[in-house]
Amino acid sequence: MTEVAVALRDAAARLAAVSDTPRLDAELLMAHALGIERQGLLLDLARYAVPSDFDALLARRMRHEPVAYILGYRDFWTVRIGVGPGVLIPRPDSETLIEAAVQHFGAAGPKRILDLGTGPGTLLYAALSEWPAASGLGVDASDIALDYANENALVLGLENRTHLMLGNWAEEVTDRFDLILCNPPYIADSEALMSDVADHEPVGALFAGADGLADYRRIIPDLPRILAPGGVAILEIGHTQHISVGELAEAAGFKVACRQDLGGRDRALLLTRP
Predict the structure, then answer these.
(1) Contacts of 153 by beta carbon, 8 Å cutoff, 6+ apart
(2) pTM
(3) Is residue 80 part of a domain?
(4) Residue pair 137/165 in contact by the 8 Å Cβ criterion
(5) Domain check: are 107 and 155 in the same one?
(6) What pairing do the DSSP bridges indicate for beta strands 73-76 and 79-82?
(7) Of the residues 32, 63, 94, the one at which a domain ends
(8) Which of the four, 21, 58, 233, 238, has the lowest number of CB atoms within 10 Å?
(9) Angle CA(220)–CA(212)–CA(172) in degrees, nearest 5?
(10) DSSP code per residue over 49-116
(11) Is there a domain that residue 185 lies in?
């Protein structure tokens, strides 16, 4: 067994106490320390020696710091999103919203895209990467998040198709959009989260009142004003919130459909005009 293989085995054994994906975490940290992609590492473990800063990265993960913050990015859909403290880390479940949008619009795609609570630009840039002729607006109440979103637009070459705006949901939005994406906070204040999330990611991007619905109550009634004819708004939900959020949408005059994530859980609501 090579030096790197031994180090990965030992690191994964240690990380099992703090992570549900210890081997993956170890491989990502090792590749990051080596300055290469994980795939390159796995293709030829024998080619590399354990870098001197691997133990420091491992120690950070052992303190429950999210891997994405340590690496400085998270891959999402077809784009790499730069992240760090103060922004919500993209989750694979959120790709359900992009899949639903692709199914709805097909290759023609929407012309104008709005991402409410854009964070580092996760949903907006995934959608813009799918439809090169589209342009988009990202709105967020966090200056930190918008700094990351701005940097990500530059790195991804999307700055000429993107406008970013500081604001509270759609309060300052005046245009209409063909596709509205939104992953709002939807966790109830009393719900316990893993240390990776609770101790590191921004509270304002996670919790939404006693029942987790506070932000939906602010967002949904404003959507008819900014959704273009024939457009669709796609909202991420917690897997138990289909009925409760759907009722809010129906009360605002929308027809509601639901899409499931890869785990088969309700994850995205599609809101269209009847």
Answers:
(1) 121, 125, 159, 162, 164
(2) 0.94
(3) no
(4) yes
(5) yes
(6) antiparallel
(7) 63
(8) 21
(9) 35
(10) ---TTHHHHHHHHHTT--HHHHHTEEEETTEEEE--TTSPPP-GGGHHHHHHHHHHHTTT--SEEEEE
(11) yes
